[in-house]
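Suppose you are handed only these lines of text.
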Amino acid sequence: MKVKILGSAAGGGLPQWNCNCANCGRARRRAGDVLPRTQSSIAVSDDGVDWILINASPDLLTQLRAHPELQPSRSIRDSGIAAVILIDAQIDHVTGLLMLRERSTPLPLYACAPVFDDLSDGLPLVPLLGHYCGVERHEIVLGEPFAIPAVSGVRFTALAVDSKAPPYSPRRSGAARGDNIALLMENIASGARAFYAPGLETVSRTVYAAMHSAELVLVDGTFWSTTEMIDLGLSTKSAANMGHLAQCGHDGRPGMIQWLDTLPSTTRKVLTHINNTNPILDPHSAEHAAIRARGIDVARDGMQFQV
Ligand code: MLT
Ligand code: MN
Ligand code: ZN
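From them, the structure of the protein bound to manganese (II) ion can be written out as follows.
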């Protein structure tokens, strides 16, 4: 099972168009050390030919240009993208769907019911795509393993996670189960597993068990501290308010680092969906060193894992 990171940044990317924080400034000036990153998305395959895109970011076309395996090769109109799974209905995870409108057949789209609701109402991408390639709707049932014909060597299981419905959703103040999911992806032949959760505010018992069972853990790396945006004067919202568990704990609650520390040392631990303000993006920072000292990786666009 191949797992590719197409985009490792949170919404807005790095550099963000209107941001001049230390990281955005250096990434924009290409000051060599802070690598630019595109918005959050991964791709999974069992044969390196057909891929499942997990989240379609606004940077999808740039991401496809960077990955020949996802480009057309077998016929005049073709793509390595066989289907799309959505983790949530956030703007940075769904706007790229519009970039797939030129398909000649309906786009196989996998998501939970609340996500389809948001993409039919608040942000009506599904009916809109109906005027182009159309959508082949596949509703994901939480906890029930499913397979996608084009990538039959991988078994997917969606787990409900606590995070936040998108700001435009009528459920912003009270998320429904399925608004946000984590994905457990199993290599059916070997039993090896990968866990993916770019938006995670609470590590429940079920989520922890899934993380603990995986060889590769790709998780929410949005913020270093829960007051990161507040401290920079960029927002009044804490990381928790936005549905993200920061790397550092707060109010006696463990942070993402503490949770990752408890996983087996053999587990590959990777922080992804990283907000441009996060100091771990600077390879010379103390925060980056602290992460690396614990054997945790800071995701970069183009990273690939074999599981
Ligand atoms: C999030 O991850 O919290 C959202 O994607 C925020 C955003 O970029 O809109
Ligand atoms: Mn996001
Ligand atoms: Zn910035």
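What can we learn from it? Residues 205-212 form the longest helix (8 residues). Residues 19 and 25 are 8 Å apart (CA to CA).
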